[in-house]
């Protein structure tokens, strides 16, 4: 049976250190912990507090539908050796006519500083360009989210401009709550030719290289 619209294949992507795969029920507790982290709350639109019901809905319904309804694909990023949940890579807002999509990512607080986001997004980009023959990957980062901007720069993205006042981030208040604040978005793009030499440069800097997908 064929779908009336294009969809990404149900795949997993492997690097030396990571496996990017569909979410499983067992990921729920780690997902809840990650999504309640202060940095994730501040820079994403996830519900807060993030509950077990939110995690179940994400794993069983929302994430799978991104692929089956043709919008993109959601991949749980896990450590190859420990199988711990490192984060999420989410291809979204996919345009099948122009072969372009947007990437978003989240990293668990315990896994930050290890280059996991760079490794995971680069692996997804290589699969997208080489296997799926896409022509453009877009990334949007909040103006003050320097960690996310560093990932974009490391994988070779080009900054294209600023969308003024285009995003609502969250800031923590004195009483421990959260308040919405408007912020600019920096738009980055990655094209297939931008990847030339990036993997070698990252390998020289100590990052693991992309290996396989299936």
TrEMBL record:
Name assigned to this protein: N-acetyltransferase
Lineage, opening ranks: Bacteria, Bacillati, Actinomycetota, Actinomycetes, Kitasatosporales
Entries under InterPro entries matching the protein: Acyl_CoA_acyltransferase (IPR016181), GNAT_dom (IPR000182), Ribosomal_N-acetyltransferase (IPR051908)
Domain N-acetyltransferase: residue ranges: 18-175
Domain of life: Bacteria
Source organism of the structure: Streptomyces violascens
PROSITE patterns per the UniProt record, alphabetical: GNAT
């Amino acid at each position: 049976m064929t779908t009336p619209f294009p969809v990404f294949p149900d795949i997993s992507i492997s690097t030396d250190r990571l496996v990017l795969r569909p979410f499983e029920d067992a990921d729920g507790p780690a997902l809840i912990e990650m999504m309640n982290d202060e940095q994730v709350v501040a820079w994403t639109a996830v519900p807060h507090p993030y509950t077990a019901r939110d995690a179940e809905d994400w794993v069983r319904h929302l994430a799978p539908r991104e692929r089956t309804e043709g919008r993109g694909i959601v991949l749980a990023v896990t450590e190859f050796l420990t199988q711990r949940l490192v984060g999420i890579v989410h291809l979204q807002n996919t345009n099948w006519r122009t072969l372009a999509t947007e990437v978003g990512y989240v990293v668990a607080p315990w896994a930050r500083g290890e280059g996991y986001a760079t490794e995971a997004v680069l692996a997804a980009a290589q699969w997208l360009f080489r296997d799926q023959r896409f022509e453009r990957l877009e990334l949007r980062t909040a103006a003050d989210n320097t960690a996310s901007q560093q990932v974009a720069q490391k994988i070779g993205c080009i900054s294209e401009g600023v969308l003024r006042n285009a995003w609502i981030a969250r800031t923590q208040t004195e009483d421990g709550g959260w308040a919405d604040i408007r912020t600019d978005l920096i738009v980055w793009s990655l094209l297939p030719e931008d990847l030339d030499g990036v993997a070698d440069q990252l390998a020289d800097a100590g990052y693991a290289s992309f290996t396989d997908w299936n």
